[in-house]
Design brief:
Elements (H helix, E strand, L loop, with lengths): L4 E5 L4 H12 L3 E6 L14 E5 L5 H8 L4 E4 L14 H21 L3 E5 L11 H14 L6 E7 L2 E2 L6 H10 L2 E5 L4 E2 L2 E2 H12 L7 E5 L5 E2 H11 L5 E5 L1 H11 L9 H6 L19 H9 L4 H9 L1
Parallel strand pairs: 1-2, 1-4, 2-3, 4-5, 5-6, 6-11, 7-10, 8-13
Antiparallel strand pairs: 9-12
Helix pairs in contact: 1-6, 2-3, 3-4, 5-7
């Protein structure tokens, strides 16, 4: 694959960091705009990455960032928003308006390739504002299909070292002997972050597949309750997991929304009405990584005793 200049929007986050590392390893020049450069300090060591201060929501700044780029990867996504119909203002800004601005900027800068990372379950008629806003963002991307080669990726929940999914439950399991669990029977198909990064890398080299949407899932489907039980078993814990009916789950989430950084929202609970699974294989012949083969490496070692041992050795 010929070296390219790639703009990675949302590249300082968990998924973006894995993609940036994969792109740099393939000798691509990667430009990563961020409004909080200190949060992207871990990317400064990547040999062909450039981290710049920028507001990607500003059309003028976005146009400047995309000038001379061969491709753009958009990873921007949020889990919580103020309420609204059909989705709140925060979802609208991040999931709908920004993709629309990116398509326009790609057109103006003659960028030929755009990869947009959406979410499994995106649906204009979905039960949650999150799902509806993700679908509206996909529609904005498809509106640019006649101008550039676009690919939409819809991952299930993404796991890996530093994720906010498995690691969240690991923290809760360590802290609480009883876990009231919303959406205990909801089904997920976790996909490894490195597999997502590999799909992005290979997809950038395949403009002929423009205008396509790919669903990304791991090799196994789990009920949320079983995933939490697995994490607990790895840690040698035996919490009492109480499956909450939706009415109580919504009440629990409403209380959590009062926190500055809520772990759960009522909209998240509504999202779990729909199973987050897919029958599609990973594209570009990427082999999905089983959660059980990699998760123990960081779940079991992320304890105070292990951290001290690792520093000593």
């Amino acid at each position: 694959m010929t070296a390219q200049r790639i703009v990675l929007i949302g590249g300082s986050g968990f998924i973006g960091s894995a993609i940036a590392a994969r792109l740099c390893a393939a000798s691509h020049d990667v430009l990563i705009p961020t409004r909080h450069r200190s949060r992207a300090a871990h990317l400064l060591l990547l040999p062909t990455a450039e981290v710049v201060d920028a507001d990607v929501h500003d059309p003028a700044q976005l146009a400047s960032l995309l000038r001379g780029a061969d491709a753009v990867v958009n990873l921007v996504g949020i889990l919580h928003s103020r309420p609204g119909t059909p989705y709140g203002a925060d979802f609208a800004r991040a999931h709908v308006e920004l993709p629309r601005k990116i398509v326009a900027a790609c057109r103006d800068a003659a960028v030929p390739r755009l990869v947009h990372v959406s979410a499994l379950g995106a649906n204009p008629n979905g039960p949650s504002a999150y799902q509806r806003s993700k679908a509206a963002g996909e529609a904005a991307i498809h509106a640019g299909d006649d101008m550039l080669a676009t690919t939409i990726l819809r991952p299930s929940v993404v796991f890996g070292r530093g994720d906010s999914f498995l690691n969240l439950f690991a923290r809760l399991v360590r802290l609480f002997p009883v876990l009231p669990l919303a959406g205990a029977q909801a089904r997920f198909q976790p996909v490894y972050v490195e597999d997502v990064a590999e799909v992005v890398l290979r997809g950038l080299d395949d403009p002929a597949r423009g205008g396509k949407t790919f669903e990304l899932g791991g090799p196994h489907v789990y009920a949320l309750r079983d995933l939490v039980g697995y994490i607990a078993a790895l840690l040698g814990r035996h919490p009492l997991i109480i499956a909450l009916p939706e009415r109580l789950a919504l009440l629990q989430a409403a209380l959590m929304e009062l926190a500055p950084q809520p772990l759960m929202s009522r909209d998240n609970v509504l999202s779990m009405r729909v199973d987050n699974v897919t029958a599609a294989p990973l594209p570009y012949d990427v082999t999905p990584t089983p959660l059980e083969t990699v998760a123990p490496a960081w779940i079991c070692n992320d304890t105070p005793r292990a951290r001290v041992r690792n520093r000593v050795h």
